[in-house]
């Protein structure tokens, strides 16, 4: 391949010798080497030099010739994948419409059923109108920067891109051959084109390529590849089920592309098509495709968690009912398969049921119903131990979630038991997920065991560095949490140093958008705030920071970073999401030290309204914490009546959620007593003699005037 007709391919460089990755002149400098036509060089060994060119190791901020070369190489990949998003031309559209209304007479295929699923036409119209580039931030249209130490992942990405290119060339050759064979826009279903389109080897390679791109986090390429394959299915007479399956794969790539509304829309269309197939032949469809159906429904529920917890809960509960119906069908309506197949199917159904119930537990936690979440998880722990055994990673995952939940409830002894068990299982399997370490660190933070927390978080960083590389975006997550821990023990210089490392990793990758980048800005702002407060301190009564050295300057840096974080989060996720609320609270805390208390209270109220809108209830420990913060702010403003009302509300809600003996409830009661004492003192001062420090001075003078002595 390599002609100008290849979809999305860059033009050949002037120096023809560069097509094979070699300089035309011996001894020429690397900076003069034109970009490698990597996609057309499938059988060329992938040396470290070639891989460095793909992953742009020289950095985005340099202006060297090598860097320009690398940018051309990576842009070739992006240009190619962008070319896969082309809508159907008139002939392809006519062919797709023909196949979605007629049946396939080729009895050698597994999908010889009528194609009159009305959703196929809806999918075609959706694809023709899709303007992905207008919806997608340009930062996501880039090759992920995989570090040199992860050579296997680097090679996998390049080879997979080459496979996709080979398939695209093959598809194009098919189209050209078909055009030569017939001038009709509605070919016979028995044509050679259809038989080749349904070739099983191409289907297998297509699916594997899409999965590899997704797991290596080249989500833009995964979406584009799925789009190409979906178009091929529709124009080649593939089944409706196959089209909906591929559309689900495209939808899954929307998560990290920050295209949640698009994902919801695509999965809604898919499920509409599946429902039509179920109505047409429930037993046959569910026997063959139940996993695809349940997966699409599960993914739709996950998409709703951040924006509409009640909707997510409804979808997950409906999915459980669907699973029960599928079990019933397998038991009563389908011929018994050999024992090993039946056992495998039953295990898969149970595994899926556990996944759905785990999601339901998660939503209850998001809604603040920790007791219901704990109840579900304890049942799941027993079920998982029976199904997987006590040394399985899925059992460890549920134990970890039980520990997280009981930590929130203040049941620290139980939490420690489950969290340590999850980590011990991981160690026995040779790998402990960093999230399991995070939750144990969170528990020990509440105990005040900062030395142990520090050790745990350092281990979490090492785990992610080994898995993803020291300069990977993924490693910034444990680094952020490590910085928070170091901040708690007062080492603000090290805290700031770690957060500056996180910031520089994002800058190196050229990523300045999205939720995770906003978290980095937020934590960098917190580090500057902590540094400013340590340097200058603040007045406990008024909440105002003292000016000493660069204390106020550092607080203003923190404010700017946190404001930027709030803006980016509102662009990246639903504004009602709790993460946006947390960012507003942190910004409010910062500006409170600068004396902007009215705005601080406004931000806290916005965060509370958003949280209540998502969870559907005020009875949530996070809402209690917000009321407590508002109460503290009113207290620093000496508006003690409002402060007492807010802190009382916080205490009542927290007691309802986790009980009066919880550390949080006890802390709120202490603050409430302080506010009441301050209010009482303020009340006395209103009646005191302005010339005297004694509020009872006037009464004493009256007693003396009446001749009454001691």
Summarize the structure in words:
With 710 residues, this protein is mainly alpha-helical. Helix content is 70%, strand content 0%. The chain has helices at 48-55, 65-83, 90-99, 118-129, 132-135, 151-181, 192-197, 200-215, 219-235, 240-252, 260-280, 282-305, 309-332, 339-366, 370-388, 393-408, 412-429, 434-447, 450-468, 476-488, 492-509, 515-536, 551-572, 578-593, 597-615, 621-636, 640-658, 663-685, 697-705. The model is unreliable at 1-35, 57-67, 104-114, 187-198, 334-344 and 685-710 (pLDDT under 50).
Mind sketching the topology for me?
Blueprint: H1 48-55, H2 65-83, H3 90-99, H4 118-129, H5 132-135, H6 151-181, H7 192-197, H8 200-215, H9 219-235, H10 240-252, H11 260-280, H12 282-305, H13 309-332, H14 339-366, H15 370-388, H16 393-408, H17 412-429, H18 434-447, H19 450-468, H20 476-488, H21 492-509, H22 515-536, H23 551-572, H24 578-593, H25 597-615, H26 621-636, H27 640-658, H28 663-685, H29 697-705
Helix pairs in contact: 1-2, 1-6, 2-9, 4-11, 6-8, 6-9, 8-9, 9-10, 10-11, 10-12, 11-12, 12-13, 12-14, 13-14, 14-15, 15-16, 16-17, 16-18, 17-18, 18-19, 19-20, 20-21, 20-22, 21-22, 22-23, 22-24, 23-24, 24-25, 25-26, 26-27, 26-28, 27-28
